[in-house]
Amino acid sequence: MKTIFKRDFAAYFRSPVAYAVIAAFLAVSGFFFSNYNLLYGNVSFSYVLNSVSIILMVLIPIITMRLFADEKRNGTEVLLRTSPISMWSVVFGKFLAGYCVFAIMIGATVLYPIIISLYATVPFAETLGAYIGYLLVGAVFVAIGLFASSLTENQVTAAVIGMIILLSLYFLPSVAVTAGGWIGSAIQWIAPISRYFEFTTGLFNFSSVIFYLSFTGVMLFITVMNLERKRWN
Question: 139 falls in which pLDDT band (50, 70, 90)?
Fold first, then answer.
């Protein structure tokens, strides 16, 4: 697992992918930060994170698209499937590589609350909760992107599949409102993004943490099963 992680993580920074994704996220979040926090004098940085959350539906699939698709294209997937390393180790190593790039991307925005703190008091619980929520929902999204990458050898196709799945999940709360009743409540319960907003209010809901970790685990399990199926075939 450690070898897989180190190889894939280093590969991000040997290509323009990581730099481009991080730069894009910082540019968009910086735009909202300058307009909302600096121009209007608001101290809540969680609003900025909320506003830019939709671009994660595009950026995360770009981060994860190459993880398995590239192996298939280069013909190295066969080596992974026939190696003595367990498929869980392979999947988790690749997941950690993609997740670390995501974490670096989010961590770079810590500069913005620091700037706010130079002029005003930043709501600590709200800001910390927003970052924790981002890291949790990001784990789910990276796991979904990894699964999408395991379905095809084409990186663009993997990115598109990941975007479609993530955008569908992003708009589930709107579907829940339209559906109403117990169906709407069930849809709202499984929507990852709706639980994220709890953290932005400074509330730490342990059941939501379990939900995110479980969702991530399920997606990684499905990815392993998909690859194991190919191994046996």
Answer: very high
